[in-house]
Amino acid sequence: MTSKRDFLAQHSLFHELYDEELDDLVAITEEREYAEGGVVAYQRDIADSLYIVRTGHLLALSVNQVGEIVTQDKKHYMAGQFFGDAWLFTPETHPATVKAVRPSRVLIIKGDDFRKFEEKHKIPIEYLGFTGQAQDEALRSRLFLKERQYTPLQLQPDELVEWQSRRTPYILLLEAIFPFFLGVVIPALLLYLFAVFLPASSITLRVIVASIPAIIGLALMGFYYLDWSNDHFLITNRYLVHSEFSLRTFTTSVDKVPIEQVQSVEVEKPNFLMNMLNVGSARITTAAQNRILRFDYIDDPQKVKDTLNQMQRRGQELNFGREQTAMRESVEGYFALPPSFKKVEEPKVEDGEGKPPLPWWQRAWQSIREEARRIFSLRLEEGNIITYRKHPIVLLTAWRWPLMVVLFLFAFNWVANMFSLEARWLWLLEGPFFILILFWMLWQFLDWDNDLFQVSDRYVMDIDRLPFGFGESRKQAELGNIQNVSAVRPSLLATIFNFGNVQIETAGAAANITFENVYNPTRVQNEIFVRRDAFQRQQALNARKQQRREYSILLDVYKQALEQGRIPTRTPEGDLQPYLQDLPEDEPSLFNEYNQPS
Fold first, then answer.
1. Cβ contacts of residue 472 below 8 Å, gap of 6+?
2. Using the 8-state DSSP alphabet, how is residue 142 labeled?
3. Alpha-carbon distance 127 to 123, whole Å?
4. In terms of Cα–Cα distance, which of 10, 82, 70, 89 is closest to 40?
5. How far is Cα 512 from Cα 467, in angstroms, rounded to an integer?
6. pTM of the prediction?
7. What is the pLDDT of residues 538-575, one digit of tens each?
8. How far is CA 173 from CA 188, 189, 498, 545, in A?
9. Which of 76, 105, 303, 536 is deepest in the core (most CB within 10 A)?
10. CATH of 4-144, one of 3.30.70.660, 2.60.120.10, 3.30.2320.30, 3.40.50.2300
């Protein structure tokens, strides 16, 4: 039998991959061996993996609500065939129970692992032999999105764009009326007036006069278009996103609200014209301190409500699938049931002799680089803690006054030299100033370097320390209490250098935290949401794990009592006629009355 790597290299899904990509793909591919009758997947369990049949024969059968097998939905999977490629991007629930008809080997690639693999290698979708449905799902993911306007929103790899819109183009048309009048109508009118009243004027004069309003009008039209095109409304499978860019003030704000916090959606079309054009607003109320998110002036706002309702139904199915899967694993683990499969491990290739150690000077240089990276990095990830610092622009802004004093002293020296003043007297006068300025700049640097913002797997922390240990304040909030996170780039300078504030709203308004002037605030916002979601999932998992163990103990106790015959009968069984013999003959039997022939 060929190796797992050779099999994947020859398969239609991955035959276009390079050697390095294949090596990483093999590392995330699990091979399982199933005996005859072994269950590969249960109906209604969570489905988030790709299955490839390496050898053998699988049969998929589904049952309806009354337990009857739906024969028209049965599917056979032979060696080389696969199913579930769309589940790599959009988890669903298994539509059928899949069993091994004869001993089989199955390769399984989990969606989380594949998305990390794709994030690393950036393989174009056309080089992967996925089905049409899987390609459609993939093209809604950040991994394959071709529209660059989503890049600043920092979507997560497992986020899919379910709905997206800008404000209606009718808004742009209304804003373009005045620029069109200024850029087209007025120049034409000016040229007409020149032709009628000043026919002897030169062509150059006419063009210059007519070009001024035309250029202003075109500039205004470009301004309005850029301002309109950089605003986005998105609904992904995890968040509601509103990105607003104001070209007037050069500020950018990105609001992200988790889907599970949506409480109600109200569609507004306030007048006859908006009803006729099917334009309106979606008013979304969330659980974050009664926060209201508005998707205003969008085409067909009813789609927002329909999309959220559809995602809510899908979320309920996925939650049921996850719970069913976890419940089965809990019961099987409690009763120590053997798994229906055996993992296939390929023999490991022994590595050769290790590389020779680096020279001392290279090791020293690496240590210096690591220490410099730790001190000056604007984002540093160590273990499970991500540390953010303020942008260097903040430090330069704090240094502006000392630097101005230094420039003034240099200018003073230059003037003094012009008047032939003795240099030693200048040094005696300026020396204390230079020492004071250097200390001032050192203080500002240490104050900038000591202000840290951290995100761990449990808390967000704002640490503010004064230089030389003169004081420290620390503010922290548990990830589970975070309700909303907003990212704002408040000025033209912040937009150009991509820094701003990340505002973290918690269950109590007094405990809100702001990460000030951090680099790439949208990325920081995204990473806080990732840590928050992981924390909440772990909390829910721990609670349900204990609950499922209690259910398993209950089943165990019930089985023991049943085996001992101690569980009494709860439903009458057997022939009921002996219980009808004591009815009086002169009174009609209700049983007989309803069974008389008509």
1. 463, 464, 465, 466
2. T
3. 7
4. 82
5. 25
6. 0.75
7. 888 788 778 777 887 888 888 888 888 888 876 666 66
8. 21, 22, 31, 57
9. 105
10. 2.60.120.10
